[in-house]
Structure formats: C-alpha cells, structure tokens
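Task: encode each sequence below as structure tokens.

Item 1
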Amino acid sequence: MLSNEIPSGFKVFCVTPDMRIRYFAQPNFCFILFLLPFIVLFIGHIFLLCFTFYEILRIGIVAVVQQISQQLVEYLVFPFSFLVLGFVTFHAFWITFGVTDFLAADDSFIVIKKLFWMSKQQEVTRMNIQYFQQVKDGGEGEDSFPSWGLELVTNQKIYDGNISLPSWIPESTINQIIYTKIVLLDKQSIQKSDWLGSVLADFYKVEFCASEKR
C-alpha cells in the first residue's frame, strides 16, 4: 500500500487495520520571503490598534472619536486592511507550522488540522468518499511559485435538491460545483499530493485523479 519513498514531511504511524498519517508543513522559504512584508504590515496594524486603546485610556473615548473623525478615510480602510493582512499572516504561519493528521478507517475518514492551540476536524463516512483529486494551486498567471494541492471530493451535495446545468459542461466541472470538497494538502510540491492521493485512493478503493498540469 505504501511506497518505500515517503515524501518529506510525512510520518506514517500505522497502516493496518486503520491508517494514520501525519503531515508537518514544509515551508517554501521563497514564498515566506514574499509574504514577509505583509506580516510586518500586520504587526504594525496590531501596534496601531494597541496605541488606539492606549489613547482611549489616556485622553478618553470622546477625544479619540474626534481624532478619528478628522481622519475618517484612513480609519475606514483600517478594518479591511487588518483582515486582509491577518489572513495572509495566518496563511504564512499555517504553511510554516501547520500539522495535519489523516485518520483512515474502514468506515470513515478524519482530517485534523492543527496550528498551535487551534484545531479543526472534518469527518466523512466511507460511503460518502467519491474520489481524491489533485489540483494545481500555484504557478499560473502571475503566480511564480508552482504548487499542487489534494482534495477529497465527497458525495455530499453543497445544495439540496436538483440543479439544472447545461449538458456541455464536463462532469468533472459539475462535481466541483455541486459536491462538497475537503482540502487535504495545498501549496505543496507535486510529489506529496501524488503520494498521499495514491495511498488514500488505494486504501478506500476509489479513483485518484491526477492533475493534467504537471
């Protein structure tokens, strides 16, 4: 079931009767360097937020509101930029320190994503496992960092009821629209999703759809 050449970042704990695999994030330092200015800006936003709270305690909320009203445009932009920079910073931490556990059992598949004290668990029953799909999620257009991801496409529909779509739309595209997907890997080298996708597809006896963009 498992090849002898396990890609870097993966640790296999057991393969029978259940399979447990852990993946430790393998940071792309060029990509991290690209994100570094956004992280610095986010830290600056945090300092600005702390300074605003300090000013409220020092001179009172009324005086601070008056100052904000004089620079209304800048303060209206602040929440938006704070959220965007926060998302980029979280993503940078995730691809650097994130840990993902894959628990494959006979009747279910569980994915647990952990970052520091935070964790998120997703579970799907075996009967709802449709296939595993490799996608190219980097290196297109202006993105200069080629990367691939891995998704589990389930039999669980995003929308209840029937959706009428034109017959000329490929079935693979329809599946991407109407079925729930679970992201297993993202922004990684192609060897990692090749290996994990093949291993999980073999365990559950389903198809592994490799990306046509290699």
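Item 2
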Amino acid sequence: MATNPYAHLAYYERLVLQIKAQVVQGVLLPGDKLPSVREMAKQEQLNPNTIAKAYKQLEADGVIYVEPGRGSFIAEPLRQANTKDIAAFRPKFDALVVEAQSLGISIPILQAWLNEKEGQA
C-alpha cells in the first residue's frame, strides 16, 4: 500500500507544492493564468480561504504574480538561489535526510531520486 508523502502537510501547502512541481515540470509556463480562487476551490474541493492562502504563499515565493482585476499568473522562471537562500534551505534539507534515514531510506536512494528529478527539470 503506497502512502502519501504529503499527508502530513496542510492542504494549502500541498497545493503550493503541486503548483511548484507543475512549474518545474513545464506543465505551467510563465504567463499562464491560474484558475480564480473560487474556480480552484471548486476543482480541488477545498475552501476558498485555503486556495487564497496557497496563492499568497506562491506570490510571496515569486512563483506567481497577481494582476488586480485580471487574475493570478505564473511568473518568469525563478532566479538562481543566492547564498542566503541556500543557507536558509540547508537545515530543511538536513532534516529531510535525517527523516529519510530514520525510515531506512539510504543516501544512495536519495541521490538516485535527486538525479531523477534533475533529469526531469
């Protein structure tokens, strides 16, 4: 039985990751319009406040931009990470590696997954 690796996340966090993944995979391209909050809430069967929270997070992360009266759009590709971004992300990555190892997932498996993701980008 497969388990959902995102089950521990709040619904808005799941939506943020889903949209970010679609951007990285090229499913969503710069300039693409996202559904309105109400439309997305209906599609995802979530409360509109949850969608609005996800959109606010995506905007804060630079993944989307909002044009009042027009909607939310996918932003241009994300900039290259700077040293501040890398330093902020490193503890999260380290925690993820520790969690994976506690579940019996080895470093070579993690490396293979990263290589696989790199090939998809």
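Check on item 2: Strands lie at 64-67, 71-74. The longest helix spans residues 83-102.
End of task.
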